[in-house]
Amino acid sequence: xxxxxxxxxxxxxxxxxxxxxxxxxxxxxxxxxxxxxxxxxxxxxxxxxxxxxxxxxxxxxxxxxxxxxxxxxxxxxxxxxxxxxxxxxxxxxxxxxxxxxxxxxxxxxxxxxxxxxxxxxxxxxxxxxxxxxxxxxxxxxxxxxxxxxxxxxxxxxxxxxxxxxxxxxxxxxxxxxxxxxxxxxxxxxxxxxxxxxxxxxxxxxxxxxxxxxxxxxxxxxxxxxxxxxxxxxxxxxxxxxxxxxxxxxxxxxxxxxxxxxxxxxxxxxxxxxxxxxxxxxxxxxxxxxxxxxxxxxxxxxxxxxxxxxxxxxxxxxxxxxxxxxxxxxxxxxxxxxxxxxxxxxxxxxxxxxxxxxxxxxxxxxxxxxxxxxxxxxxxxxxxxxxxxxxxxxxxxxxxxxxxxxxxxxxxxxxxxxxxxxxxxxxxxxxxxxxxxxxxxxxxxxxxxxxxxxxxxxxxxxxxxxxxxxxxxxxxxxxxxxxxxxxxxxxxxxxxxxxxxxxxxxxxxxxxxxxxxxxxxxxxxxxxxxxxxxxxxxxxxxxxxxxxxxxxxxxxxxxxxxxxxxxxxxxxxxxxxxxxxxxxxxxxxxx
Length: 590
Ligand SMILES: [Zn+2]
Fold this sequence. Notes:
The chain has 17 helices and 32 strands. With 590 residues, the chain is of the alpha+beta class. Among the domains are: 2-171, Immunoglobulin-like; 172-278, Neutral Protease Domain 2 (Neutral Protease, domain 2), CATH 1.10.390; 488-566, Pdz3 Domain. An eight-stranded mixed sheet has the order 5-4-8-2-1-12-15-14. Strand 1 (2-10) and strand 2 (15-24) form a beta hairpin. It is globular. 41% of the residues are buried. Zinc ion is lined by residues 273, 277, 307, 310.
């Protein structure tokens, strides 16, 4: 048994005190203690050891040397006896994949602070949380899905299980709900305003029930949604029986509101997404993650299947459970297609490459990312849609992606092993009787345009691409007539401030790039007019006009001519042409 104690050493200094104790029964050459460098589910090396402020070791209560081997491994003597390693850990990363501590709130993702002993990752862990004066005087509480054995003491069967149960603490507001007989909790921390608790719980219950019913069973006995609400925060990280979520406090449903706001629906989408991961990535997982190797990147071409398919189902489950109307769902879908297609990166990087390069490209985006990469989340969701509609069409509705997900879960229940991409593709063929090898090769391994328009049309939807602002992408009751005048495109993203228009990124081959503008430039005038009138200036331009631009780069004033290009028709509109056909995919037309 490895015994860990996490103490709130000084919440105002954002310091945990970690104590790790264990016994060595027989003399050995040496022991090595490790701390993870990344957390499963978030594919970036984070070097958690950089938060260790001080560290010491003792054997049989006598201080001993601790030899640091590299950034996250330390060596100790190996003779038999009782050992203890202690460290002070700085915790001030307010995110779902790190640890944070202040006078109001504490959160500890296991991988960030729990050490492991070499060759002893499969040993049981006992984890005690000592809240100190915050527990005694501030009435702090703890929430985690780790198995409790006494007050604030928990056990896990292994290191892997222990790190998959994050711990949240503070003055928590805990709401219980029962989903098909399984206890669930929504635990809220952070300062929230009064909100419609009943609506939140009712919606969460519908979402959870729809997912459990889809898979036939849940891979957990209880589940906790740990939701921190703050100011301009957003994110989620999946775990086997809980999820850490962060959202803006305005996302919570307002009291008395008749409709669910877009912000609230986004929060429900996040809840749905992380819950779905309990099956897809926590139970069913890529072969490359079996087991995890937490010192190095683990590259895999399969993230599209685990993040993309999860992204496909997150909103679809909202529609199926009646939390989101079909027009609202189709508007979200139209926006996703628009976002994926408007970047040139979708023509440069396949989904397999996007997955493989997650560590260095998706997680390390720069001003050129839209021109160079595609998202395995968003394009992966569209690939899942293509596969789902293709299976439904080829089998006259007998099989769908739901059957594939159920079969993947059954396979996991049988052997618990990770699945390779080749096995995954073969399983789809075996379960449905449809040979999808060529389709999957084209949509996953190449940059071919996805056959979305054709497939959606077979399910009663017309997909039209128009040269309009991205914000207008939506499901529409009527498609617009073709515009008489071609729309124009500046070809850059920017923000306006007192100094002018700051270019944040330029579109490959677009008007701004051809004029020589680059990210970081500050445009101050166009046609000799102050740039604050940009909207007016631009609305008077036509395709093929030429206009003078003054801008600063590195503090030096430059002038250029910008040739106005036509906007590409990349904004997607969806329109229902045949409700009967649509009902074969989305049965609950509203
Ligand atoms: Zn995800």
